[in-house]
Amino acid sequence: MDKRIVLLGPPGAGKGTLARRLAEEMSVPHVATGDMLRAEVAEGTELGRRAKQIMDSGELVPHEIVVEMAIERLGRADAATGWILDGFPRDVEQAVDFERRFDSAVPDVCLYMKVDTGEIIRRITGRRVCPRGHVYHVESNPPRKEGICDEDGLALTQRDDDTEHVVAKRLEVYQEEIGPLVDHYDELGVLRRLDASGDTESVQTRALGIVSQ
Length: 213
Ligand code: ADP
Ligand code: ADP
Known about the structure:
The chain has helices at residues 15-26, 33-43, 46-55, 63-74, 92-101, 117-125, 164-187, 200-211; strands at residues 4-8, 30-32, 83-86, 109-114, 127-129, 135-137, 191-195. It is α/β, with parallel strands linked by helices. A five-stranded parallel β-sheet has the order 2-3-1-4-7, with helices on both faces. Strands 5-6 form a two-stranded antiparallel ribbon. Bound molecules: adenosine-5'-diphosphate (2 copies). Residues 9, 11-17, 123, 126-127, 135-137, 140-141, 199-200, 203 line the site of one adenosine-5'-diphosphate.
């Protein structure tokens, strides 16, 4: 089975949800630059302070920061046999730099997740997270007790960048970058389209069908 996978898709498509499931199934780490940046913000580091302002505006944080961050993470021992990348690379510049600086940066498969706009909005507006990053949805994946994380009992909130205004900006940035990025992976011969509509089980089954081909 393919072990190095890049997930592409709009904000709220379900990349993190699918990545966690694939990572568990395939025993490889889930590497999400958004999660790593949010951990820096939560820890109050200098990098976190810089990143927070940009993330709250819906723009992309500087290239050098995320490429460095991803390469450092993928260089650790647990990523030696594979990885699931979620939210990185975000544009062709990041992809090219990643390929220049990291051996085997070209994935076995790049899954391009397609969901219609109405469903993206439904998924994003219903998303709730705990401070440690566990993700729920008020309808499709509610916690056992409303507003409380099943894993650690902490209060669930909306992400600061899941507001209508910032989501609109994130979708705009995504639309600008995704075409060339998809072409890039298509030219490398690894692009596969994934219908990401339907429940999480169906999406996972479809994804596993593609990566195990
Ligand atoms: P992304 O990482 O692409 O931003 P998430 O994985 O965080 O997206 O998913 C966004 C929201 O949609 C979350 O609340 C998640 O629980 C929910 N979700 C994810 N996949 C599905 C699905 N297939 N059907 C319904 N809701 C989903
Ligand atoms: P989503 O997929 O739901 O849009 P992420 O968690 O991947 O959210 O990203 C949240 C924010 O973190 C982005 O809007 C951006 O500011 C920043 N970010 C995450 N990954 C990258 C990246 N690879 N390059 C630049 N900025 C990033």
